[in-house]
Amino acid sequence: MKYKLYNLEITVIGDKNTFNCSHEVGDTLVIEGENLSFKAGTVLFSHYALATLMPYIAAKQRADDVRDWMSYETDIACPDPQCGARFRFEKTGKQEYKYAPSELHD
Ligand SMILES: [Zn+2]
């Protein structure tokens, strides 16, 4: 069984002067399938922010109906109410995957 998922980049945006956390503008997570990595130049990423973003990652990998708000809303706020950082989701491509549980055990 084959299916497709979007690759994503999630980038810190906003005015650094309004950040209450250690975010740096431009820090970026790269999502490809089940894997998460840092884009070159990104050293740290708040696990509190990541916990907030996690539910959106799987949903945004799949959302492709243009009328579905999950497709067109791009920015998620930092969970710290005193922090002005936002995390911008961008679809960077689409990749095909194969789900074949019976083949996993061969
Ligand atoms: Zn923050």
Throw out a few tags for this protein.
5-stranded antiparallel sheet, alpha+beta, 106 residues, 5 strands, single chain, binds zinc ion, globular
Explain what this protein looks like in three dimensions:
The protein has 3 helices and 5 strands. The chain has 106 residues and is α+β, with helices and mostly antiparallel strands. The protein is globular, with a radius of gyration of 15 Å. It has one domain. It has a 5-stranded antiparallel beta sheet, covered by helices on one side. The two termini are 16 Å apart. The model has no long low-confidence stretch (mean pLDDT 94). It binds zinc ion. Residues 19-21, 23, 49, 78, 80, 83, 85 line the site of zinc ion.
Q: How many beta strands in the DSSP annotation?
A: 5
Structure ligands: zinc ion
Secondary structure class reads: alpha+beta
What sort of overall outline do the alpha carbons produce when their principal axes are compared?
globular
Instruction: Give the strand order of the largest sheet, numbering strands 1, 2, ... along the chain.
Output: 3-2-1-5-4
Poorly predicted tracts of residues:
none
The portion of residues forming beta strands comes to: 25-35%
The end-to-end distance, rounded to whole angstroms, is: 16 Å
Number of domains: 1
Rounded to the nearest angstrom, the radius of gyration is 15 Å
- Fraction in helix: 10-25%
Kindly report the oligomeric state of this protein.
single chain
H/I helix tally: 3
Helix-strand string = EEEHHEEH
Mean pLDDT: 94
Largest sheet: 5 strands, antiparallel
